[in-house]
Amino acid sequence: MKQVGIQWIVKDVKKSIDFYSKQLGFTIDFVGDGPKFSILSRDNFSVLLRQLHNDGHVRPNRIPFTEAGWHTTGKEAWDAYIWVEDADQLFEEFKSKGVSIIKPIENTEYGNRDFEIEDIDGYILCFGHSNS
After folding, report:
1. Sequential pLDDT tens for the chain (132 residues)
2. Entry pTM
């Protein structure tokens, strides 16, 4: 495989484009009419953002996770886990841009060093690298 892309339903594609490009440093690859659809990427990770015609369809993983009683706060209900070269550097970059960091960088029981952020629609992205 060469690259991975995930598609999320968002409330407002324009606002999501601004968040991913200005705060997370993603490149805008495509913006459709409206815009109601866009593709942004950073390194080998792409996010495809789609705005539907009516509201109420944004559903980050934390919603079913908390509804099912898996986790009371929804933290660790990642919508994406992205392996990076240097999680510490990326953590500092996002922190300096005021990104909503919901779990600070730390070593984990599964052998990674990672941190979690929340985007403007409530999607949780975890960025980490292996400690081995």
Report:
1. 888 899 999 999 999 999 999 999 999 999 999 999 999 999 999 999 999 988 888 888 887 878 887 766 656 789 999 999 999 999 999 999 999 999 999 999 999 999 999 999 999 999 999 998
2. 0.91
